[in-house]
Design brief:
The chain is of the alpha+beta class. The chain is 29% helix and 22% strand. Bound molecules: benzoic acid.
């Protein structure tokens, strides 16, 4: 893959750039993650800051849901491993919440640069709040970017992960505000024969030939 410059960004559909990094759970290499796991990798601007503490607490409190979705969590900031360790202990002592997932200490910014987490007009030294959804083949499937001063929405992160996994499993698309249990979108027909079949299919909710929903 072409070398990415400091502020270039991988895009949806790209293979996730590989890296080796120091984390709160020891050294890890992205390509060593289990081949059947999804990965949600997220950056935060800095340890010992308020919004970041609420966000990391959110990931920690809902880690069980990510486990059920066969998904590994992987945090990152441009802080030292010592700062990470101290922050994790500090939050645990203050609130009882333990950040029980690896957090990358990206002091040399090498991972942040590969993933376009540094946005020069926001900060050249702190990563923005990025979330990368990486599928088991290590392809980037969805990217979120939030600025330094706005925390993310954990429900939306989990909803997006469920939507991606549902799309893959059932070969469907998901409409506005979809949540599990609701009808899904049947991919639009590509041939006249498929149009005819669809018009006669009693198992789907047909709004028009190009828009149909079904229960899964
Ligand atoms: C925060 O997490 O509160 C924060 C971090 C960096 C810049 C602004 C806010």
């Amino acid at each position: 893959m072409e070398e990415l410059n400091q502020f270039s960004m991988p895009r949806i559909g790209d293979m996730a750039p590989d890296f080796e990094a120091v984390t709160t759970k020891g050294k890890i290499k992205l390509s060593d993650f289990a081949k059947d796991k999804w990965i949600v990798m997220f950056s935060h601007p800095a340890d010992f800051t308020p919004v970041c503490t609420t966000e990391m607490t959110g990931f920690a409190l809902r880690k069980g849901e990510f486990d059920e979705l066969n998904t590994e969590l992987l945090g990152l900031s441009i802080d030292s491993i010592h700062a990470h360790l101290a922050w994790v202990q500090n939050v645990k002592n203050n609130t009882g919440v333990y950040f029980n997932f690896p957090i990358i200490a990206d002091l040399d910014m090498s991972v942040s640069k590969k993933y376009g987490m540094l946005m020069e007009n926001e900060s050249t030294t702190a990563a923005v709040r990025a979330v990368f959804f990486i599928d088991p083949s290590k392809k980037i499937r969805l990217i979120m970017y939030y600025p330094l001063n706005v925390g993310r929405n954990m429900d939306e992160i989990i909803r997006s992960l469920k939507a991606l996994q549902t799309a893959d499993k059932y070969k469907v698309a998901l409409p506005l505000d979809w949540v599990p249990g609701e009808k899904v979108i049947v991919p639009p027909p590509a041939t006249l024969e498929e149009v005819e079949n669809r018009l006669n299919d009693k198992s789907i909710e047909l709004i028009d030939f190009y828009l149909a929903k079904k229960s899964i």
